[in-house]
Write a structure and sequence with these properties.
With 397 residues, this protein is α+β, with helices and mostly antiparallel strands. It contains 10 helices and 9 strands. Strands 2-3-7-6 form a 4-stranded antiparallel β-sheet, with helices on one face.
Length: 397
């Protein structure tokens, strides 16, 4: 009797959850995952390839995303939000990115980079004014931190604001801003005489302009913009009063990066699913591609890396819900999981052969999108150096 059968083998494990991570979720967390998975399957995946081809963000989905409670999902119900835990938010990101990184990016920016700073650093008046409408998708936000020359060095910020009576005069520019041309408000970070501060800049304020960035080969189903501020007069009532210094924007980035640690798992699963099914159906040299050792080794390697990523983010989410999560832990997961996903997307594209270069299949779209995901919210190198600093106590930045 053979130890490893060479004929058909009855599979006992779920191919995309070999360690039954789902059994570690609560009933509420599983319900959230199922709801968002259904939305991605029924509403995102059927249209996203064409939207990517057209370079169009599918705005028609915003209302449905809001109705599902996915905007600001971790914020309190008193502001019209769902009040979900961190693991549920992670699962939301995973299932949305299984559809497309652009859809997950929209939700990440709205939730973690716009609603979160208003909640964490804003006044109660600001929370009441903005958060319910943002949760309902009636007000869209963007996050203005990155500048053309700055990239990974936000302390090198040139955008500035100076007091003028009861107002602030804002000058400068921001670049690579998700949702920029969609946004009704921008959370803008600027240098002041009192340190870096955040401002809620409203669409239509004189001197404020957004310009969409074209010719993208990545995140094509997402709006990316440059923001310009030419003597924009912002009332002091629009300043976020409860934070000063880089800890404000960096705190927002930690929230967003947490969601990004989960999102690429969805992209990787989508690619593995496609490659696995294709390799079973494609017949070469009188047998399915999936029957070859080279294909099975590649598929097994993908599954191994997805499983490790799933376990990594679940523990990260539990730490976050317990109030114990550290930014360095987020860096490790962002580095690991983005690298995992982009490698898998490229390998799946290869397994698809020539068919893999068209957006009729998902792998090339995910691979291109992940070029942005592995870059934004801190490049891979930045997160490697964060861990290096933590290990050695020496900053190499």
């Amino acid at each position: 009797m053979a130890i490893f059968p060479t004929t058909e083998y009855a599979m006992a494990l779920h191919p995309y959850d070999l360690y039954d991570v789902r059994s570690l979720l609560t009933d509420e967390e599983r319900a959230v995952q199922d709801t968002v998975a259904r939305f991605s399957d029924e509403r995102v995946i059927p249209i996203i390839g064409e939207a990517f081809d057209q370079g169009r963000f599918p705005k028609e989905l915003v209302g449905e995303i809001a109705e599902l409670g996915l905007l600001g999902s971790s914020l309190p119900e008193k502001y019209g939000c769902a009040g979900l835990n961190a693991v549920s938010y992670g699962l939301i990101c995973q299932e949305l990115e299984r559809g497309d990184s652009g859809i997950r990016s929209f939700v990440s920016v709205q939730s973690s980079l716009c609603m979160y700073p208003i909640y964490a650093y804003g006044s109660e008046e600001q929370r009441q004014r903005w958060l319910p409408d943002m949760a309902a998708g009636k007000v869209i936000g963007c996050f203005g931190l990155t500048e053309p020359h700055g990239g990974s060095d936000p302390a090198n910020m040139k955008t500035n604001a100076r007091r003028d009576g009861g107002d602030w005069i804002l000058n400068g520019s921001k670049m690579w801003i998700t949702n920029g041309n969609l946004a009704d408000i921008a959370i803008v970070w600027a240098q002041t005489d009192e340190g870096i501060q955040g401002f809620i800049v409203e669409k239509g304020m004189p001197g404020f302009a957004a310009q969409e960035i074209k010719h993208k080969m990545s995140l094509r189903a997402s709006v990316t913009s440059s923001l310009f501020f030419d003597n924009v007069r912002v009332p002091d009532a629009n300043r976020l009063p409860n934070v000063k210094g880089l800890k404000g924007p960096l705190g927002c980035l930690t929230q967003a990066r947490y969601g990004i640690t989960w999102g690429p798992i969805g992209a990787a699963i989508a690619c593995l699913d496609e490659a696995l099914n294709y390799s079973k159906e494609r017949i070469l040299f009188d047998r399915p591609v999936a029957a070859t050792q080279s294909a099975q080794i590649k598929l097994a390697e993908m599954s191994r890396r997805i499983t490790l990523a799933q376990l990594l983010v679940l523990q990260l989410g539990r730490l976050k819900d317990a109030g114990k999560m550290q930014p360095q832990q987020v860096s490790l997961a962002k580095w690991n999981n983005c690298r995992m996903a982009i490698d898998i997307a490229r390998e799946c594209r290869d397994l698809l052969g020539g068919a893999g270069i068209t957006t009729e299949h998902a792998a090339i779209r995910h691979a291109l999108n992940l070029e942005s995901v592995i870059t934004y919210e801190g490049t891979e190198t930045v997160h490697q150096l964060v861990i290096g600093r933590e290990l050695t106590g020496i900053s190499a930045f």
